UniProtKB/TrEMBL annotation:
Protein name as it appears in the record: Flavin-containing monooxygenase
Similarity comment: family membership: Belongs to the FMO family.
Cofactor names: FAD
GO cellular component, one term: endoplasmic reticulum membrane
Domain of life: Eukaryota
């Protein structure tokens, strides 16, 4: 029976793992190699080897109501899109509220996780750790939750570009970028067009003499704000919208969405238009990029072909000289050096995972990988649901399909995504936010019962079906039910509005509308009387009066005979 669980990493995923394990009566021990919780969201001035790193100004691109833990809403006064320091503060509040810190061992690095000799029967793992003094310790655990993330090893593809060895400027990965101070007054090229690439290019363009954003393909760019200035993810990610996507032709939705985005700014004119359609890939979330292009401080360029001594040649043949620095926003490679190599069964030695959680090859399903996926939406609610599912599997309350069935599902998921992501390594990482959450929720019995809610609680049903798919929905019923879930759903828009209430807006002066003017009423009445008295209307009225009189006489004779 599973009792003791090892959790690798104390970032957002690790904290959720510890909390869910405690909720299920298990004994978690969390190992964190750094000196604090927070993982990716703990800003550090200098990057550390094999650890993710963020820049000083980073602001989240998913809103607080969509990304919070399902039974712990963010404080009302938090901005809807917060700075990274506030998110770290939220993690501290979460850890303190659920008493998680006592289960976390800081400055302790996991060196290896291996199956015990009797693994086929016990499902247990040998875990070797070292502390800050490099002292080794051995442990035995019934199960393991891996939460070390896949933003660990920076990918710096210098070998793809001829002449980089003789380039006189600075070449760096975005993991080394902290702020734009060192680029003031310089000419900079940013390579890569993910969310980080867009953010960093915009920030550098405010300080540099000139900034160039070099991309292989464009992106559909959306703002954090939807109509009315509300969070865009709350407007888009709903069950009702998913239904529309299933009922309406995809071509029509792409056309309408792209047309709406191009009404804000023409993506082709701005050099942003991609080859793919809007729904095929995740859009780029950036509020300021088009404005920087409009002002000329940021210039869109194609992919780099080669480096010169002090310049860069692009694939369209254009050359930019006197380049001082090139920042590569080219992503990361997830590595898990402490795991058995047998688990990396993919063609490129990547982890093979059923539903992005469980290695199918294990004889006993007592190891799960958290957060190794990509999604159009917030990550934290999905990881929390992954943990809730994994712990139920560990405890034997939920069972996985056969190994063969899991491999078939994995391959089917990969083929489904190949149209939008021709790279198989990318294709297998993609999940759909609501469908994926609902699948795991159904596995453990916490999926909202929409038909039942429609009959018993139509107000809540309307909020869940037509409103944003916030994480609280998955605490309404079943294991882990939270008494505050219903209220959290009903009051979610109040928490959205709260940070805006920093100034009382003056009430507009009430003035009598011209349409309600007594003079206008008198004029209208006069016109009606004039029409009635005209020679065209009066005969008609007279005939109608005669008809009514005859009808009255007929009824009187019928009901009241002499």
């Amino acid at each position: 029976m599973v009792r003791r669980v090892a959790v690798v990493g104390a970032g957002s995923s690790g904290l959720a793992c510890v909390k869910v394990c405690l909720e299920e009566g298990l004994d978690p021990v969390c190992f964190e190699s750094s000196d604090d919780i927070g993982g990716l969201w703990k800003f550090k001035e200098s990057p550390e080897p094999d650890r993710s790193s963020i820049y000083r100004s980073l602001v989240v691109n998913t809103s607080k109501e969509m990304m919070c833990f399902s039974d712990f809403p963010m404080p009302d006064d938090y901005p809807n899109y917060m700075h990274n320091s506030l998110l770290l503060q939220y993690f501290r509040l979460y850890a303190e509220h659920f008493h998680l810190l006592q289960h976390i061992r800081l400055q302790t690095t996991v060196r290896s996780v291996t199956q015990r000799l009797d693994f086929s029967v016990s499902g247990q793992w040998d875990v070797v750790t070292t502390n800050k003094n490099n002292e080794e310790e051995r442990h035995i655990f019934d199960a393991v939750l891996v939460c070390s993330g896949h933003y660990t090893r920076p990918v710096l593809p210098l070998s793809d570009f001829q002449g980089h060895e003789t380039f006189l400027g600075r070449l760096l990965h975005s993991s080394e970028y902290k702020d734009a101070d060192s680029f003031r007054g310089k000419r900079v090229v940013v390579v890569g067009f993910g969310n980080s690439g867009g953010d960093i290019a915009v920030e550098i363009s405010r300080s540099a003499e000139k900034t160039f954003l070099s991309v292989r393909d464009g992106f559909w760019v959306i703002s954090r704000m939807a109509r009315g200035g509300l969070p865009v993810d709350m407007a888009l990610i709903s069950r009702f919208n998913i239904l529309l996507l299933q009922l309406l032709p995809k071509t029509l939705i792409n056309w309408a969405g792209e047309r709406a985005l191009n009404q804000n700014y023409d993506h082709e004119l701005y050099g942003l238009k991609p080859r793919h359609r809007l729904l095929d890939k995740r859009p780029l979330v950036n509020d300021d990029l088009p404005g920087r292009i409009l002002q000329g401080t940021l210039v869109m360029k194609p992919n780099i072909r080669a480096f010169k001594d002090s310049g860069v040649t692009f694939e369209d043949g254009t050359v930019e000289d006197n380049i001082d620095a090139v920042v590569f926003c080219t992503g990361y490679k997830g590595i898990f050096p402490f795991l058995p190599s047998a688990l990396s069964e993919g063609p490129h030695r990547e982890l093979t995972l059923y539903k992005r959680v469980f290695p199918p090859s294990l004889q006993q399903p007592t190891l799960a990988i958290m957060g190794l996926f990509q999604v159009k939406g917030p990550i934290m609610p999905i990881v929390e649901m992954q943990v809730r599912w994994a712990v139920k599997v560990f405890s034997g309350l939920t069972r996985l399909p056969s190994t063969q069935k899991m491999l078939e599902v994995l391959e089917a998921d990969r083929r489904l995504n190949m149209h939008s992501f021709p790279n198989p390594q990318q294709a297998v990482l993609q999940v759909d936010f609501i469908h994926y959450l609902d699948f795991m929720a159904e596995e453990i019995g916490v999926k909202p019962h929409l038909w039942r809610l429609l009959l018993t609680d139509p107000v809540l049903w309307a909020k869940i079906f037509f409103g944003p798919c916030t994480p609280y929905q998955y605490r309404l019923t079943g294991p882990g039910q939270w008494a505050g879930a219903r209220r959290a759903v009903l009051t979610q828009w109040e928490r959205v509005a709260e940070p805006f209430r920093s100034r009382a807006a003056p009430e507009p002066e009430v003035r009598r509308s011209f349409l309600c003017s007594p003079w206008l009423t008198a004029c209208a009445g006069t016109m009606v009387v004039a029409l009635l008295l005209s020679h065209k209307i009066v005969p008609l009225v007279q005939r109608a009066t005669q008809t009514l009189s005859r009808s009255k006489s007929f009824l009187c004779d019928l009901w009241f005979p002499d």
